[in-house]
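Notes to self, Hydroxymethylpyrimidine pyrophosphatase:
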Amino acid sequence: MTSPMTETGKIPDALAEARRHPPAGSRAEEYVDFASRRFVLATDLDGTFLGGSEADRRRLYEWIEANRGEVGLIFVTGRDPQFLEKLCAETFVPWPEYVIGDVGTTIARVEFDESGAGRVRPMGPLEDWISEAWGDAGPKVRAALDGHPGLTLQPTAFRHRVSYDYDPGAFDASAHDIVAEMGLDSLVSDNRFFDVLPRGVSKGPSLLRLLAHLGVPEHKTLAAGDTLNDFSMLALDLPGVAVGGAESGLLEKLDDRASLHKAQAIGAGGILEAVASLGLHPTPPAPDPAG
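result:
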């Protein structure tokens, strides 16, 4: 995917300065600091945090950087750690403190070296259940779905999942049965992707595991997304936002969620809209009316 960020040159001084100064102290102190934020944004990337107008993305990102002491940031995404490191290093997207990556099969923290370079480091103990549920399923999945109608294997070698590009016109739905018989889960999202995941593992359960580890109250967490692979996160009993332009199938499945804000604004603008609407912070900038 080509990043929607249009500027990969000079990073605004305030953002660059923030990247050079990660939280100080021990990890225990860091967890206490993170849990004490006014709220934590747990956000999908494509179509959500990276979606909307450039003006709204800048408003959101700069507001987060200016309020790091009050706003925590977790990326909850289908993207892998290498993509995230490149994204944050080369564009004006702010670094998160923690990451739920690979559709929930990676749980990680962001660390910075002495030069300020950020790295997404898996948190081993939090991933043990994922590794156990997956085992060595990758080769078996690839063999079982080799040549399956409507599925094209993605080239990235993920640790605890196998992912395909999905062609709905050519797809043979028996793939779901094949995956289920292997004791694994299958997930179609955005009508473009087919993921094979460890049984019971997805964005929602992994986010809850991380929040519990960090001591973050669920009611102080805003989950943001736009496609069906965000369903397990947005269906949790915590504040949520389906940003403008969200997948219709997602909205249908979440129709009875009282704590879900269905935003009008697209992407980053929808997040800003929800922060204000749900009263999570007193000073979020308003989305661009033209966005």
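- Residues 54-66 form the longest helix (13 residues).
- The longest strand covers residues 106-112.
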